[in-house]
Amino acid sequence: MKAKPYITIIGAANMDITAKANTKIIHQDSNPSTIRHSHGGVGRNIAENLARLGTSVKLMAPLGTDTFGKELLAGCQAVGINMDYCYVSEDITTPSYLAMLDEKGELYVGAADMSCKLPIRHIIGHQDMINESQILFVDTNLEQEVLEFILDCFVGKDLYVDPISVTKAQKIKHLMSRFHTIKMNRFEAAALAGIPLDKEDELKRAGNFFLEQGAKRIIISLGAKGLYYRTEETEIRLPATSLTPQNATGAGDALMAGIAYCSLHGQTDDYTARFGKAMAEMTLLSEDTVNSDISVAEMKLH
Fold first, then answer.
1. Residue 1 lies in a domain
2. Terminal Cα-to-Cα distance of the chain (whole angstroms)
3. DSSP 95
4. Global confidence as pTM
């Protein structure tokens, strides 16, 4: 029998510690907050969203054998993520991410300990599995040399990337022609394109820039201003739906998962953009990084 199509994700899995302030944040003071622990990491978040949509997904991430690592491994397996290809070593500390949210649920400041590395030899050992995947996603938590090795090794695959942050986006600045799909927030897109993105016409200019660099598809999340979706043939501008966010962390990961899911199933650009937006909005309504209620049936497209 023909194997079920699957998506391979090479990136980060980490423990998220999120503190949401109960009132306006006071600098240099202890702020009454609600603190939660959850499983995170851009690659892992996308993998869980995809698994909840019924997609076969294999995650390759570095994990320690410490308490966080064991909890992540078991938790990811429980939601249907294939963790057989992770690099697990007692010599590394499992990555962690700390997010301080303001009283509105927006990210105030974040801190990440992502110092562990994924060895190139581990990727080489699983080349066949990666080659057989329909979509290959990477995030920029990977070391520069690891990221470039993947691009050189898997030429011809549909490669998707999330730059993650303005700083880490610099890793792909000279590599954009190698990616099929780049999903960014407005700040990452502005940094890569050198365009402020404060006005609507600047979105079009940024879209043109990324297409000229060689990318096939660009998605720019604009927070409360909605979404911009662009290919050579299509330009889609979707306004945001009015809602009260509970946690802004993870919405972009859900957006990327929705885009990848629709691409795997051959959906139109319009449907794909709206589905991705619906995924992000459903995540914003959850206190967790991934909304456990996400499913194809629950998506409400606007």
1. no
2. 38
3. P
4. 0.90
Look up residue 126 and give its two tokens: 């699983």
- CB atoms under 10 Å from CB of 33, counted, come to 16
Number of domains in the chain: 1
pLDDT, tens digit, 9 for 90 and up, residues 288-301:
889 999 999 888 77
**Domain CATH number, residue 255:** 3.40.1190.20
Burial (CB count <10 Å: 0-12, 13-18, 19+), residue 117: middle
Q: Which domain holds residue 243?
A: 6-12+41-86+117-289
3-state SS, residue 38: strand
| Dihedral of the alpha carbons of 8, 12, 13, 16, in degrees to the nearest 10 | -140
198 belongs to a structural domain: yes
- Answer yes or no: are the C-beta atoms of 286 and 254 closer than 8 Å: no
How confident is the model over 219-231, as pLDDT tens digits?
999 988 999 999 9
